[in-house]
């Protein structure tokens, strides 16, 4: 972006065509906003598709601009078509957005030149220039973005491990509410990072499958997932552990190792980013020996407390497994070559039938994309009518603002428009004096480069700052052609307020996408994915541990649906007239579901250990029972009897020597099933209430 903006500003200035800076820079910005991470061949395809769509958008605006009736028909119809292109996938969604943005930029700069061709040509030239720079960069560093996304995975994994360490606090007295919420948030962030890395790896695997380094990155990705499964497991109630070990240092030792493993993941993230070799810290062996000594000492003085001793040993073994994964990350092969093709999901369009099917499936009022397409058509129509009858200077900022802030749901739109207004006001406050402090053309060109670069730096993390920087870019751009910064500031703030009001009205009154309506369907999906995860864990206790595609997808689906539930409830809290009781129930279900997945992850993490035939039969019966309850969402009359039989069985086998491995494995499995049974009634009650 820095290279592209430097070229789009300094080159025309050097040759004496300063007026071309605006269309070239806007073309660079539009192209930058449509870039997605993909392999080299797809970049060529994206470049061609982008330029074709951009050309249609910009030339149609110029040709129809002076014919209002034809223009509004073209604007509305193209808005609907471009928005519906999003049904074909991420690539087409961002190209569609960029095309609408290119149309808005063309409207905004229509009066810059006397003919109808100069502006479109140089908008397209700016877009082409950015794509060429991006293409060259991807040839020089073809897997840089994959390294960065995988590195982010391990950074998020480190944060998750730190949050997990906070659960081993002997002084906690509030039921771990704050820690559980933080752990859930970090888990959702990690799941998003896994999804981004999966897409990036899939794109690279198509082109670089034979390269050892790509296979190494893929192995790292699956190691991160395995560490997550073990770290997300729970071998008991944290509150019970906190009370039981209030005057002991055992929990602190567990927490210290988790914190050290978090640091190891952060170090691993840096080695991936810098293409270095990871060196495992030798201090781990010392700290593990100290922890083992503490557990043995507790065992010697509390021999009657067999259940707690076995829980501590299972926790210790789980952390050792994570340590083993980290220590051998560069030597182990975590994915057989024969399974590579099946591990990641192909999102490419394979035929015209697939294209038509995807679009046809979304041509219904039940589709959120279809509703958003209609909503955007109305937004652009109203915006154009306001501009046409008010004769507002730079009025097309209304359409531009609406395009950026109008999102498919109410909560996100409300959040964006607030940040848009704040950022615009901040940009005006800073921008007006800067145009007087730096009046020369070279100074303003440098400021255009810096503010454009900062806009892209903050656009995904700090939208208010990003808006402020793009507002500054606008000030300096219009200052180049002699416009008053005061007049530009007034026009900008008026257009921003009108555009935000239109967008807010659209999402509030045109098929408002209230998230609480999606809650019953998502709750049902959460129960289904948890059930499927449990079923595949049970299958692997029978057939043996295997990280095959079915198991990985089931595990990912359970975590993914939990993350979606968290996101939906968060959005619901921002919706007007929302029943606080429903919000409280949703948060409670979210907490319990995260706990349930933790218990399932524990079963999954230990599925490589043998269990007795009697235990497997009991596991099979109990898992079928749990799955049925999750599906029907109603506790039956057998629950208390089954729970009592499980408790009795735990008491029976807990008396057996702790040196008997198979008995220990049986005990671990039945304990996790007992923990699931404990929270199951409340989960089912909440799920039934929210459906």
How would you sum up this structure, described in words?
- Helix 11 packs antiparallel against helix 12, helix 17 crosses helix 21 (485-509) and helix 18 (410-437) runs antiparallel to helix 21.
- Helices cover 77% and strands 0% of the residues.
- The protein is an all-alpha fold.
- The protein is built from 27 helices and no strands.
- Residues 334-343 have low confidence and may be disordered.
- It has four domains: 1-140, no CATH class; 144-343; 379-512, no CATH class; 515-690, Methane Monooxygenase Hydroxylase, Chain G, domain 1 (Up-down Bundle), CATH 1.20.58.
Strand content: under 5%
Q: Are there runs of 5+ residues with pLDDT below 50, and where?
A: 334-343
Helix content: over 70%
Number of domains: 4
Provide the structure class.
mainly alpha
Gyration radius over CA? 29 Å
Would you tell me the overall average pLDDT?
86
Whole-Å distance between the termini?
47 Å
How can the largest sheet be summarized?
none
Counted beta strands: 0
- Number of helical stretches of at least 4 residues: 27
- Multimer state: single chain
State the shape. elongated
Which series of helices and strands comes N to C? HHHHHHHHHHHHHHHHHHHHHHHHHHH
